[in-house]
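Memo subject: From amino acid sequence to discrete backbone structure tokens
Keywords: amino acid chain, backbone geometry, structure tokens, three-dimensional fold.
Body of memo: The sequence and its backbone structure tokens, given next.
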Amino acid sequence: MTAPRSWMCRNRAISLERAPLLMGIVNVTPDSFSDGGLHLCARDAIAHGLKLAGDGADILDIGGESTRPGAEDVPAAEEAARVVPVIEELARLVEIPISIDTRKASVAASAMDAGACIINDVSALAHDPAMPGLARDRGAGVVLMHMRGNPRTMQNAPEYGDVVEEVAVYLGGRIDALEKQGLGRETICVDPGIGFGKTLEHNLDLLANLGRFRALGCPLLIGLSRKSFLGSLTRRPVGNRLAGSLAAAAWCAACGADILRVHDVAETGDAMAVISALAGRAGRGMMRS
């Protein structure tokens, strides 16, 4: 399939011509694996979102429920209370698109009322039966991520016959199912779910075969910033994985990722600028091959 050149999110066409775009992470949580508790109050989360926007983020992804391995569910009312004030203020202060990272339709609805235009759902819109209809009716852009099980169970000895093919087939099936429920393909982005129900070897296999996911014909988002597989490779703790994150981001850019979900926006942006300049000088169009 031809690679998409834009992503429709509530009547807003997000251009992918200068991909990869950077999705900056704002976790309004006490227990996210990397930065839990740092931006739990709305004031701190808003300030962090503004910093990421100033650093060059193309999208801000706001989440109020940790999906780290072993994480417990957060009640919808509590999750909404965490994220809605942050989204309202950021939507007033920045022009870039805002994404809500949630599995719950009620939280997504409140977030879109506050100004979000993207639903980033780690369950690929399968956790909450009301989510597909909500996304369709609001015209939201959606991120469909693959996850084996749920955050509490996903790392309990995950097994695959062929992880690349199984994840690609699952995502393709979700695209087809959601199109039948009225979602436009132009609103759908896919994410193979690095670290979500995968071992180190699974993650490496997925990253080595990103072309299989580009072939689905939807924008491709990759989230690997600071994740545990980088710690396994580098033996670095979570707070010291910037170099590994940048190396992996560079690989994904070279393999055609459209969006990178990252904690370190400024540093990743610098790395992408260097790669883009070198690819252009080489005349090979490396980042969009």
